[in-house]
Protein 1
Amino acid sequence: QVQIRESGGGLVQTGGSLRLSCAASGRFTRVWSMAWYRQGPQTQRELVASITSGGNAYHSDTLAGRFSISRGNSQSEVHLQMNGLQPDDTAVYYCNADADTPQAGRRVFWGKGTQVTVSS
């Protein structure tokens, strides 16, 4: 199995910054891409940003310029730098990894999420 662990969430004031981290561990042979999603109290889960193993990044049009995804030291680690945070950014932020596994083939694995709260 593959475990996804997010970290870095917390409480921040409007205009502040946070850096989320996500690491995949366990039995996998390759990570094709990793992504960040978020789900606010009254909203559906939405894609924030993603990055492929080759380093190609995608950012939501509404968040590009404030949020930036990057790879860590390995293909199984990503970060999300969030600047200029607003109360509307309050959400649970989830990370996923699209990975090849010996037992289950290629699957998308999800973390449990990390809470980001932006106070006004």
Protein 2
Amino acid sequence: QVQLVESGGGLVQAGGSLRLSCAASGSIFAINAMGWYRQVLGKRRELVAHITSGGSTNYVDSVKGRFTISRDNAKNTVYLQMSAMKPEDTAVYYCNAESVVAAGRWNREVWGQGTLVTVSS
């Protein structure tokens, strides 16, 4: 069974930085795109950053220039470097993997359990 495990969340002051990591496990053969989403209680989950297997990236406008997504395909891991953080970045951040081939099975998408990021003003 494919699992995504996030780490790196926590409390940071406005203007500070955090780095999130998400490692995929479970006899992974290939992962297409990976991404980070976030959700605030009572609001819809939104895409924050997305990266393809080839390294193409895109970001929600509110984080452009502040957040950087990257991945290590050899480690099946995706990262989100967050800088110049703002209180409005406070949310639960979820890792997502699209089109995952593992243990002879294809998974359309897999989600992590989420990690809380809190930015204090």
Protein 3
Amino acid sequence: QVQLVESGGGLVQAGGSLRLSCAASGRRFTINDMGWYRQAPGKERELVAKITSGGSTTYEDSVKGRFTISRDNAKNTVYLQMNSLKPEDTGVYYCNADVLYLGSGVLARRWGQGTQVTVSS
């Protein structure tokens, strides 16, 4: 099974920045789309940004111009640079990856364990 490990969350004041990382590890796989979701207390998980294997990106409207998603395919890692953070960005951030297992041909979505981002006002 491919595992996703996130890092980079924490507590930051409004207007500050954080950079999240998510690295995939395992055997004989390749990754299609990768993305970041977040879940605020009492709310459903929502898409923040996603990136295709070719580098095309999509952003949720509230983060456009503030967040940047990128990936390093050689390292199987996706990043989320978050600038001009607001209190409403607070939540648990999860990365995901659409993984193609090369041996079996199975395509599966894998999720990281989540990392807490807290933005104080």
